[in-house]
Specification:
This protein is mainly beta and 128 residues long. It is built from one helix and eleven strands, in the order αβββββββββββ.
């Protein structure tokens, strides 16, 4: 029960332009360089959205600096996500990422075809 409450709190704490459309979160609050990050995104809107969490990228806490590239390759097409549905992905942080406060940024595709960036809550990368 405690973990469920924490996840709900993290989902509600997510921010970015699409906050009213999605809940975007990571599975932990602290990672090591090279660590695996679980990403979850829930469509909280009343319309279908397009999403591809594989294309998410790590950015600094203020969103101004991109972190090192993810070593994984991705399919470029967004998948449809109906209202209330959830999509999960695992990402690997680069071993060269600088310890500090980071978040993931992804783009949701709106029914109009335009894209909107959303950010996960901040997490910490600590030195091994």
């Amino acid at each position: 029960m405690r973990r469920s409450l924490w996840l709900l709190t993290v989902f509600l704490a997510g921010c970015g332009g699409g906050l009213e459309r999605v809940a975007f979160a990571t599975d932990l609050l602290t990672y090591a360089p090279g660590g695996r990050v679980g990403l979850s995104l829930v469509n909280t809107s009343a319309t279908n959205l397009g999403i591809n969490l594989c294309l998410s990228r790590v950015v600094s806490e203020d969103g101004k600096t991109a972190g090192p590239a993810d070593p994984e390759t991705c399919v470029l097409e967004p998948q449809p996500l109906e209202p209330g549905e959830r999509v999960d992905a695992r990402k690997t942080l680069a071993t060269t990422i600088v310890p500090g406060r980071w978040r993931y940024e992804t783009t949701i595709r709106l029914p109009s075809g335009s894209g909107e960036k959303v950010l996960s809550p901040v997490f910490t990368v600590s030195a091994n």
